[in-house]
From TrEMBL:
Source superkingdom: Bacteria
Keyword field: ANK repeat, Membrane, Transmembrane, Transmembrane helix
Chain positions covered by the region annotation Disordered: 728-771
TM helices/strands, residue ranges: 568-594, 606-627
Name listed for the protein in its UniProt record: Uncharacterized protein
Gene3D superfamilies in UniProt: Ankyrin repeat-containing domain (1.25.40.20)
Repeat positions for ANK: 92-124, 233-256
Molecular functions per Gene Ontology: iron ion binding; oxidoreductase activity, acting on paired donors, with incorporation or reduction of molecular oxygen
Species, as recorded: Neorickettsia risticii (strain Illinois)
Length: 771
């Protein structure tokens, strides 16, 4: 009988199928079946397919209707939970529900779901096995609901959800409480694949309509429980949406969460990890430190989607935003703002800072505190790799003193295996030259980023001078490090020239160029002159540029300073003179009006007096503006040019160490925190492949021969204790212990200086250093 029914289903012979089913019902009523469990309805073929499975695969609505009408409610529901064999093609380990969903035939699926929803047992109640049909998973570990969501067909999803909602209204616990069927099934993980639950799968489709259809049948509390469960990758559904940059899906989830979002966002990530399918065992469960937050903000920044970042921060007050931005997302080594700077996501930087200022209860103070926040020993500016991220800070009225402190803050105890490594003691300007790896490979466009940082100081020559003269732990200024890297990886002579041109009208160049490296007693001018002595092809133009800038600055700046001082004095005297003249004229006109005998003369006198009073009031305002705005502005400009020109009457700030490097009682430079030796040993082990000294293998600078960073200084200087040579912590910039001298013919491999040039330049051109 089973074989004949199978043939009728395959042929689509509805009439024959009806007769066979009627005969089977008579046979079942006469109890002629062999044994219980081997009846016609429980029979399967060699691939494990039941009659209901075959009817669904036939994709014939009349055949399916005929089969389902011939089955009792209990039998129909039981067959819906029966899976095919693992070798069944093309639907392995699939129930009829899985098969109907995979086929995507809405008519077949709708008919099957309608029969299941209306199925009743002999007692008139919903069969107890109905829930099992919806919990059964296929070969991909997906329930029928998860399979429907993964199909990406919104109509299929709606049909499945409608049927499940109908069943949910008709099933109850023994105590009379409803059974949350949908939320329970949505939370089932596909353990054999990625540990995704149904909400993860819905988000992975990228279809906002599918996510909304699923979220609409859940309560906010049920959604919170689902969003606190992560897959084997560590992503919740919201993390996944943020990673994929789907702002519309993020908006749907946050709208459903409502007020619960503000409390849910502060859930420790340890709670999420504990929900992971592979972390059920207490002994093997990964322990997450409390300072790690949810991954969604880090995921959004790594995707570069500023709109998602805006959606995530939008519902939160300013204090909650600041707290969230201060915490590191699990799986990332840097806090969100640091991460955005390190990835060059300038739009995300702008959105995060805007949220601290223009949101509810926002304030510029939050921006100042956030820019000073350290993550892995670094400030956000240490992590910058492009100018636009730095320029975004200019939109806010952050005090220049705060920005100056940030530009002179040295890195401290940076993790050697982090995404960004900056040698201890280096400020953000020097970090651009050290590069993200800390190995002396500058970030692309490092000079442009440095100029953007200096622009934050709004052209204040004293602050810019201090920032550039500030030294790292080895006593190197920013310009010294830049000059030492010229001709090396990532720094060309034109980069150095462009920096000199930029600084020409902003600082006193001679003071900066003559500032000596405290460990070697070598200045930037010594380095540049050493390049010329070595006869590198581009070094002559570089030295010409430096000399021209120095001569131009000393001449023009002094001239401008004197002119501005004279102009300021002339403006003050002129305004005071006209003020006195107008006052005297007002007094005279008043006396004339009083002493006039005739009516006409008195009237004319009053008119003259009114005009004189108006002129007097005008010049009074001019005098006030002169003393309150014009004269101080001219004086500030004059003082700035005086600083640039190196006027002895204007004090130029003395060089100092970056914040984080201090001189202790023993007059030794030490890094904070303590136990630096242990840290250095760990860095040497983890970063032994990064050899910063290799930078100098082709460097034409005077620092081509590196020396130990721990040296004895000349008498009168402080004794330095710096890093010892190691691949992990040494940074280029120390110069040869022998001072640069003009080579003599006897010292050269040829017979003359020209012979040396002939031997040197082709080799350097081969290295790409000739310009």
């Amino acid at each position: 009988m089973y074989t004949e029914i199978c043939k009728a289903i395959e042929c689509g012979d509805v009439a024959t199928l009806k007769l066979l089913i009627q005969a089977a019902e008579v046979e079942g009523a006469s109890d002629t079946a062999t044994t219980e469990g081997e009846s016609l309805w429980s029979a399967v073929d060699s691939e494990g397919r039941s009659i209901l499975q075959l009817a669904v695969e036939a994709r014939n609505a009349e055949v399916l209707k005929c089969v389902t009408e011939g089955l009792s409610g209990n039998c129909l529901v039981a067959l819906c939970a029966k899976k095919t064999n693992a070798d069944c093609s093309p639907f392995p380990e699939s129930t009829p529900l899985h098969t109907a969903i995979a086929l995507g035939d809405l008519k077949i699926l709708g008919l099957l779901l309608d029969k299941i929803s209306n199925a009743r047992g002999q007692d008139g109640e919903v069969p107890s096995s109905s829930i099992a049909a919806w919990h059964t998973v296929n070969a991909n570990d997906r329930t029928p609901l998860a399979a429907a969501l993964a199909s990406g067909n919104i109509e299929v999803v709606r049909l499945v959800l409608r049927a499940m909602k109908t069943l949910e209204r008709n099933i109850w616990r023994s105590d009379g409480t409803p059974i949350p069927l949908i939320s329970g099934i949505v939370g089932i993980d596909d353990i054999r694949v990625r540990g995704d639950n149904a909400l993860n799968i819905a988000v992975s489709t990228g279809n906002p309509a599918i996510v909304k259809a699923l979220v609409d049948v859940l309560t906010p509390e049920e959604l919170v429980r689902l969003l606190t469960r992560c897959n084997l990758v560590g992503d919740t559904a919201l993390d996944q949406a943020a990673r994929e940059g789907n702002a519309e899906i993020v908006r749907i989830l946050l709208k459903k969460l409502g007020a619960l979002y503000k409390t849910w966002i502060h859930t420790p990530f340890q709670v999420v990890v504990e929900s992971c399918a592979e972390s059920k065992d207490e002994e093997t469960r990964e322990k997450v430190p409390d300072h790690f937050s949810m991954r969604l903000l880090g995921n959004a920044i790594s995707s570069g989607n500023a709109q998602v970042v805006k959606e995530l921060l939008g519902p939160l007050p300013a204090e909650d935003r600041y707290m969230w931005l201060s915490r590191t997302s699990w799986g990332y080594s840097l806090a969100p703002l640091h991460l955005a700077f390190s990835l060059g996501a300038h739009e995300c930087v702008g959105v995060m800072l805007d949220s601290l200022v223009f949101g509810p209860d926002g304030s510029v103070d939050y921006v100042s505190r956030m820019l000073a926040q350290r993550s892995d020993g670094l400030t956000p500016l240490h992590c910058a790799i492009e100018a636009r991220s730095v320029e975004a800070i200019q939109r806010y009225d952050v005090p220049r003193e705060v920005l100056f402190k940030l530009l002179t803050s040295g890195a401290s105890d940076c993790s050697p295996d982090g995404s960004v490594f900056v040698p201890d003691g280096m400020n953000p300007l020097q970090a651009m030259l050290a590069g993200p790896g800390g190995d002396g490979s500058p970030v692309p466009g490092a000079v442009g980023v440095m100029r953007a940082m200096l622009d934050l100081l709004e052209g204040d020559p004293a602050l810019v001078q201090c920032a550039l003269s500030s030294m790292d732990g080895a006593g190197r200024s920013t310009l010294y490090t830049l000059a030492s890297l010229v001709g090396s990886r990532g720094v060309s002579a034109s980069d150095f020239v462009s920096m000199i041109d930029y600084l020409e009208s902003r600082v006193n160049l001679r003071t900066l160029l003559e500032q000596k490296n405290m460990a070697e007693g070598v200045s930037v001018l010594d380095v540049t002159r050493g390049m010329e002595y070595d006869l590198y092809s581009w070094s002559f133009s570089l030295n010409d540029c430096v000399s021209r800038a120095l001569n131009k600055q000393e001449g023009i700046s002094k001239c401008r300073a004197s002119r501005l001082m004279a102009t300021g004095g002339a403006v003050v005297l002129a305004s005071f003179f006209f003020f006195c003249v107008s006052g005297f004229a007002a007094v005279c006109s008043a006396l004339y009006a009083v002493c006039s005998a005739g009516i006409k003369e008195r009237r004319d006198g009053l008119i003259i007096f009114g005009i004189a009073c108006f002129v007097f009031a005008f010049f009074t305002v001019i005098l006030f503006l002169t003393f309150s705005h014009i004269a101080p502005g001219i004086q500030d400009a004059a003082n700035r040019y005086a600083v640039i020109a190196g006027d002895p009457g204007v004090g130029i700030p003395e060089p100092a160490f970056n914040v984080g490097v201090s001189l202790d009682a023993n007059r030794e430079v030490r890094f904070r925190p303590e136990n630096i030796e242990k840290t250095e040993a760990r860095r040497f082990h983890l970063r032994r492949e990064r050899d910063p000294l290799r930078v100098f293998s082709s460097s034409p600078s005077a620092s081509s021969t590196p020396s130990a960073l721990s040296v004895d200084l000349t008498s009168g200087l402080h004794t330095f204790q710096s890093r010892r040579l190691s691949r992990s912590c040494s940074y280029p910039g120390s110069v040869s212990e022998k001072p640069s001298v003009v080579p003599t013919p006897e010292d050269l491999p040829g017979t003359s200086v020209q012979a040396s040039a002939t031997e040197t330049l082709p080799g350097e051109q081969d290295k790409g250093l000739g310009e």
